[in-house]
Amino acid sequence: MQVGIDQIGFYTPNKYVDMVDLAHARNEDPNKFLIGIGQRKMSVADQTQDAVSMGINATLRYLDQVELAKVGLLIVGTESGVDQSKSASLFIKSALNLPVNVRTFEVKEACFGMTAGIMIARDYVRLHPNHSAIVIGADIARYGVNTGGEVTQGAGSISILIKADPQIMTLNDGHSAYSADINDFWRPNDSPVALVDGKYSKNVYLDFFKHTYTAYQTQTGSKTSDFTALLYHLPFVKMGFKANQLAIEKEDEETKKRLADNFTASACYSKEIGNIYTASLYLSLLSLLENAQLPENAKIGLFSYGSGAMGEFYSGQIVNNYEQALHKTADQTMIARRQKLSIPEYEQIFNRALQVPEDGLELASDEQSGMWYFAGTENHVRQYRQK
Ligand code: CAA
């Protein structure tokens, strides 16, 4: 029996900033952001979108394909948690009408959280093949206005259904994990924005990629030329590009071209949306699936990285007719529907979103109908509504 990814749902908020506008406002050469960083736009969440509402909205994309009574596990990976105690997954479980006997919780290890969830879900479904698992990554990357990390912000969510005999990608046995207690990027409890040692974080990311990729190859006997595509956590597109260059530098021309072309396809969505932390690697997967032509049984390698730090490399095989399980038109409409913000509008929305709304103040959303949003707190309890 094969277990893997059966459905992928995606959500990003309805506003964005253009990197050329941001470069002009920060007195930078636009090519630094467009070429040096590799980003074109970044999604911006206002006060009414958070990890919970984005996770619900991503899952709504495929909810009609799910047998709700068979969902035994719901895991949310996030580093934009809304509560220090109650799991974001409980609000989501309630909105999705999942059964009371679902096991549900939130996991945190920076951007690695969703991969941790997928590995737990894979093993769970292998033991309980009649059940499925939903794994969500949902995050808002915030470094602050006029900071070095500002150009690498973003917001969004990916939701994945893991089940037996999946329609999109089976998950192979074997993985290589690597961890170290370091301080490249973190967010203390008293800070609404991340703190980062930017240049160090770039070096550590590449170091973790080398460790996990080499260990995976040794463990499984696989070679770079076996892969149709290598996917990366994309804090910004240039970061993954650098890792991909390391992977392909000694390969023949055909392998180099295939992995470079498929990297470009995998980065299309991140280039438009920015960093969505836990879900970023899975946005790369969605982008590859919807922007490349993959042969049946194509082998896909995935490198997950969470600062702090935890890395893991694993792989999957593409299922025949996977295209039929995708929601390509809806996903592309989701990206195209966003409204462009001027830089002063973005700064105002950004700063307001950092503030906890006064208790009892009802928030209104300008999202399209059907979407969920955070509507404020009543007696300090977070309220979520569907528009
Ligand atoms: N035209 C073309 N390229 C230009 C250019 C121009 N006019 N001007 C500069 N560049 C290039 C630079 O040469 C550099 O390229 P290389 O990386 O190849 O050297 C690139 O643009 C970026 O320039 P800088 O390094 O000078 O940029 P910076 O110091 O202003 O900040 C950053 C870049 C460190 C990534 C910063 O945005 C940041 O701190 N981001 C957040 C941290 C981050 O994302 N780290 C990634 C690894 S950690 C991780 O993956 C976890 C996570 O999600 C956070």
Automatic annotation (TrEMBL):
Keywords: Acyltransferase, Transferase. Residues 2-164 form the Hydroxymethylglutaryl-coenzyme A synthase N-terminal domain. It holds the Pfam family HMG_CoA_synt_N. GO terms for molecular function: hydroxymethylglutaryl-CoA synthase activity. Its EC number is 2.3.3.10. It is an enzyme of class 2 (transferase). PANTHER family: 3-HYDROXY-3-METHYLGLUTARYL COENZYME A SYNTHASE, HYDROXYMETHYLGLUTARYL-COA SYNTHASE. Belongs to the thiolase-like superfamily. HMG-CoA synthase family. This is Hydroxymethylglutaryl-CoA synthase. It comes from Lactobacillus helsingborgensis.
